[in-house]
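Ticket #294: bound-state structure for magnesium ion.
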Amino acid sequence: RGRVTHFDAEVLATRGSQTELRARHHMERRLRQAIAAGELRLHYQPLAELASNRIVGAEALARWEDAELGPVSPVVFIKLAEETGLIIDLGRWALNTACQEAATWPMFESADGIRRRMKVTVNVSAVQLSQPSFVRDVAEALVDSGLLPRTLCLEITETAVIGDMHATAKNLQEIRDLGVTVALDDFGTGYSSLTMLRDLPADVVKIDKSFIDKIAVEASTDSVLARLVIETAHSLGMSVCAEGVETNEQAERLADMGCDTLQGWLISKPLAGSEAFTEWLPTAVLPEALGPRR
Ligand code: C2E
Ligand code: MG
Ligand code: MG
Ligand code: MG
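RESOLUTION: The complex was predicted; output attached.
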């Protein structure tokens, strides 16, 4: 039999017939083994600060390449992990690994002239966030790695917190009390965005790529909404990161709108590991739109 391609794996993981169910169980078994054997990796996508024209950190993105299944998209295996409870172990591994690796990253001089360490942001699933042990897991990851709390940011997706808003908000507040920052990921893709801004303690809003795609189109609904999100976030004391920035035009529009940080292929694709990220840093060529406003 031939290799299961990426596409097949995706289809198999999401449909429900007998064969498909078996394939899903197979994938679940492989994922469980991969987590236990330490076969997952973290890739890092740089985050660029507009005002200072500097790289200020990176987002950790999980990668799984299975010997039989080939590379499986995180969209597929994270969903599977959430549905099977494997996300608890996977998430703890990602948190610990990201903290350990980021503790080796260089310092940089920020816009205010202070030397800081590069930030690392880690995606956190609602399933993790609802665990009573989650705050302790975060505290332990910091102690074990020696990373300063303010160097860590946790990304929470909007759809993920719709469940138990109260419990989530409580855990998030405790995490922020540790000094860790919180970002609302994929902002604008759910249906309760403004309520979220009111009810969830967060430091950063990440505007979803789907809004950024059409941001350079003059007076498009998306550019109006992006401006609104940036202004609202700022007036509530939060900063704004734009996801999936691919063109200079988008970066320029975002700079004009007062967006704080950019992430996307324009800066860099996710780099294949912590070392690849630190090796890339001195070679980084940042786009025109970044840098002190003239
Ligand atoms: P996300 O957190 O919103 O991450 C951004 C996604 O957009 C990443 O996809 C990234 O590779 C992609 N991306 C970044 N810039 C660009 C761009 O300019 N153009 C395009 N087309 N894409 C861009 P990726 O790595 O496939 O991850 C997908 C999702 O899987 C993530 O979305 C996140 O929700 C989830 N994920 C990944 N790693 C973890 C993890 O360790 N834990 C949890 N809970 N979720 C994770
Ligand atoms: Mg994210
Ligand atoms: Mg995102
Ligand atoms: Mg997104």
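RESOLUTION NOTES: The CA atoms of residues 92 and 137 lie 7 Å apart.
TICKET STATUS: resolved
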